[in-house]
Amino acid sequence: MALPEIKTILYTSSLGAQTRPVFRQAVQLAHNLKARVIMLHVVEPVGEMGRALIHSYLPDDVIKKMHDEGINRVLEQMKERLEKFRDEELKAIDRDFDFDIEPVVAEGQHAETILRQAEKLGADLIVMGQENTFGHHSPTTHHVVRQAKIPVFVVPTGKQYL
C-alpha cells in the first residue's frame, strides 16, 4: 500500500523564540516532498470578562477596527519573520531552492483551531513544535497528536536541538 501523497503542510508557529527548528523542518519537508506550506498562528480570543470590559468603554466599530488592525499586525510580523528565516536558512544550507509559505492567522483555542484549520485548508501533514522545555509535549501538541486525522510531525524545540 502506497503512502498518501503530501501536497500541503500546515506549519504551526507560536512566533516564539525557539521556532526556528520547526520552520527548518517544515521547509525541508516541503522541498523534499514538493509540497506547499501554510504557516498558521493561532490567537486566543478575549475571554468574556475582557470582552465585557472592552464593550463598556469602546463602541463596536472601534473594537472591530482594533481587532482587524491587530490581526493585520500579526500577519505582517509573520511575513517579516518568514523573509528573515528564508534568507538566513538558505544561506546556512548553501542551497538554492524556492519555497512559498502562506501565512494564516486564526482565532480560537490552540489545539482545536489547529485541527479545524488543517481540515479547512486541506493539509496532509501538520508540523509543529514540542513547545515544552521539560522534554514533553505541551498540552496543545499532545491534543493535536491524539485528535488529528492526518500525520503530525513534532519537532523538539529545546536548546539541545538548536
Structural class: alpha/beta
Number of strands: 5
- Total of helices: 5
Question: What gyration radius follows from the Cα positions, in whole Å?
Answer: 17 Å
Poorly predicted runs of 5 or more residues: none
Shape: globular
Q: How much beta, percentage-wise?
A: 15-25%
Mean pLDDT over the full residue set = 83
SSE sequence, one letter per element:
EHEHHEHEHE
Distance between the termini: 36 Å
Pfam families: Usp
InterPro entries: Rossmann-like_a/b/a_fold (IPR014729), UspA (IPR006016)
Family: Belongs to the universal stress protein A family.
Keywords: Coiled coil
Describe the structure.
By secondary structure, the chain is of the alpha/beta class. Among the domains are: 44-105, no CATH class; 108-128 and 141-161, no CATH class. It has 5 helices and 5 strands; from the N terminus they run βαβααβαβαβ. The protein has helices at 20-33, 48-57, 60-93, 110-120, 139-147; strands spanning 8-12, 36-43, 101-107, 125-129, 152-155. It has a 5-stranded parallel beta sheet with strand order 3-2-1-4-5, sandwiched between helices. Helix 5 (139-147) links the parallel strand 4 and strand 5. Helix 4 (110-120) runs parallel beside helix 5. The protein is globular and about 55 Å long. The model has no long low-confidence stretch (mean pLDDT 83). Keywords: Coiled coil. Residues 7-156 form the UspA domain. Pfam families: Usp. It comes from Marinobacterium lacunae. InterPro entries: Rossmann-like_a/b/a_fold, UspA.
